[in-house]
Specification:
globular, 5 helices, 12% strand, mainly alpha, 2 strands, Sufe protein. Chain: A
Length: 137
């Protein structure tokens, strides 16, 4: 199984292939299009991530002693980002997430691509993922 750092490096390498920001946006949109179907029963306010400009739902669940996430958003860029985050941090031991360095994501260099509001939203998603992991410990 790949580590969180290896997953982040995979996305970093994927994004570095593209020369311009529009191609990187398209990559994020493709992630949104390829995301897993979100179970409608979880489309509740209690699963909304506060601090996001768009509506972003993040739902933890345990499978084989690992934490996983259902996610969705009403905005494609946010949906692409939350899909990537769930791929990086999903199917993990809760301690691995709790002990992970959130600053590693800076290596994706999304700050050039995302508005300050969207960057804050991504940080809010990360905090929520860590919060869920800590609540399962």
């Amino acid at each position: 199984m790949t580590s969180i750092e290896e997953k982040i490096n995979y996305y970093k390498d994927s994004l570095e292939i593209f020369d311009d920001d529009m191609e990187k946006y398209k990559f994020l949109l493709d992630q949104a299009k390829n995301s897993k179907k979100f179970p409608e029963e979880y489309r509740q306010d209690s699963f909304l991530v506060s601090g996001c400009q768009a509506k972003v739902w993040l739902v933890p669940y345990k499978k084989n002693d690992k934490i996983n996430f259902y996610s969705d958003s009403d905005a494609f860029i946010s949906k692409g980002m939350v899909t990537i985050l769930c791929d990086i941090y999903g199917d993990r031991d809760t301690k691995e997430i709790a002990n992970s360095d959130l600053n590693l994501l800076d290596s994706l260099k999304l700050n050039t691509l995302l508005t300050p509001g969207r960057r804050n939203g991504v940080y809010s998603m990360l905090k929520k993922i860590k919060e869920y992991a800590n609540s399962y410990n």
